[in-house]
Amino acid sequence: MDHTIEYRPSFALLTVSLDQGESIRSEAGAMVSYADGIDIETTARGGIFGSLKRSVLGGESFFQNTFNAREAGEVSFAPPLPGDIVHHSLDDETMYVQSGSYLASAVDLDLDTSFGGAKTFFGSEGLFLLKLEGTGDSFLSSYGAIHEVELTEGERYTVDTGHIVAFDGTTDFTVERVGGLKSTLFSGEGLVCTFTGPGTVWLQSRSMDSFLSWLIPKLPTTNSPQ
Length: 226
Known about the structure:
By secondary structure, the protein is mainly beta. The protein has helices at 47-57, 118-121, 181-186, 208-215; strands at residues 2-6, 13-18, 23-27, 31-34, 38-43, 64-69, 73-77, 85-97, 102-105, 110-115, 128-141, 146-151, 156-160, 164-168, 172-177, 191-196, 199-204.
């Protein structure tokens, strides 16, 4: 299964070339186009309970699409927001992905929600993270460009929760306030995740929370003067 990623980093488009008999799974609504000879199957993967977990708790779609190559052909995908796409090949590994950043993956990878404990309750990602596990190709999307940070054993790195795309299962993390209470309330930064290596952390250069904080006050209201 070959792939290309074009128009990075602002308007990335993923094109996957499937040989006959190959398949790829994607988030519902991510498909842009596909060639003749490609069949699409829409399922509630993992059964009703598994799909509900991903939808209600993980923030992903209830249904997922699987594209099966009856003949060799291409399928293209894109995220809903202006941003980047990154490829990561897992080799009997685990990766945790923030809600909304999963785009597509090999059908051999297991996709599920993973309870992160109380420490994620205070982050913008909520109580559950999506967990990709196994061996195969994965494709993640972002709002803005993707920046990859490699952490060595014991190395610490702090990231605003709204800028997290994904991180390796080998890393540990804690959710903390920025400085004291005053900084948390008035610095505009709020809560952050501090990761401890080894492992890779993927960040996005823009934050949806920050964008909405800028946009919402500018929207007209029903009480606005005409």
